[in-house]
Amino acid sequence: MMQIRAITGTDIKAFQDVMKISIAGICTNAYGATTTAAWVSDKNPAFHFKIPEFAFLVEEDGQIIVVGGWSLTDKVDLHPNSDQVIEKPTHARINAVYVRPNFEGRGLGQHMIAHLEADIMTRSSVRDVYLWSTINAIPFYQAMGYTGGIDQFPEVAEGHKIQVRYMWKRLG
Ligand SMILES: CC(C)(COP(=O)(O)OP(=O)(O)OC[C@H]1O[C@@H](n2cnc3c(N)ncnc32)[C@H](O)[C@@H]1OP(=O)(O)O)[C@@H](O)C(=O)NCCC(=O)NCCS
After folding, report:
1. Which of 53, 60, 96, 128 could make an S-S bridge to 71, C-beta 3.0–4.6 Å?
2. Cβ atoms < 10 Å from Cβ of 150
3. Average confidence (pLDDT) per 10 residues, the chain, 172 residues
């Protein structure tokens, strides 16, 4: 059980659906139903649900129960909006860890983070990892060894800004 695998082209829509279901189901307490509904709306531009460069999932009984991914970057960027080739990456960004509602608290998030960090160490020489945590997920990332920095207020849908926290960890 809990076997993590890399995503394939046919998983893309299901991967994005888990992101949306997780935001709507789990982040609503932090940001309110109006904002999360606008965030996950099909009318919202697709870049909000971009698939990470290295993306993984776990399935159970034919449904995806956790997704996650990371990318190489050369700066601490809140909204990377291009797929440029990074010649000399300095950082790895964890773009996503989303657990399906009703599957939280079973160690799935922790399992995915451990996999992403091991994948970063295997695939690259980069050891500085950062992410932008939603408010609800800060205690989770702290438990995973991430340190909190500044807060920012990106627009997740037109007219809807949310508080997120920069968090970082040095691997190794
Ligand atoms: C945040 C999230 C990924 C955590 O995943 P999870 O599978 O529920 O977390 P785990 O069961 O692996 O928890 C690992 C540890 O984190 C800590 N933790 C997790 N959630 C916590 C919370 N809400 N408050 C305090 N500590 C928490 C605990 O120490 C836990 O260890 P323990 O169970 O031994 O006490 C999940 O709740 C989620 O998908 N949320 C919605 C989407 C989201 O916000 N994603 C992050 C966007 S940046």
Report:
1. 53
2. 9
3. 90 97 96 97 92 96 96 81 76 95 97 98 96 97 97 95 96 94
Binding site membership of 52 for ligand 1 (Cβ less than 6 Å): no
Question: With 0-12 CB in 10 A as exposed, 13-18 as middle and 19+ as buried, what is 38?
Answer: middle
The DSSP annotation for 37-67 comes to HHHH-TTS-GGGGPPPSEEEEEEETTEEEEE
For position 74, what pLDDT does the model report? 83
Say how many Å lie between the CA of residue 89 and the centre of ligand 1: 28
What is the predicted pLDDT for the residue at 76?
80
Atom 10 of ligand 1, residue of closest alpha carbon: 107
Which CATH number is associated with domain 4-76+93-170?
Answer: 3.40.630.30
Distance 40 CA to ligand 1 centre (A): 20
| Residue with CA closest to ligand 1 atom 35 | 105
Any ligand 1 atom below 6 A from CB of 98: yes
pTM of the model: 0.94
**Looking at residue 78, what is its pLDDT?**
78
- Is the CB of 78 within 6 Å of ligand 1? no
Q: Give distance in angstroms: CA of 91 to centre of ligand 1.
A: 23
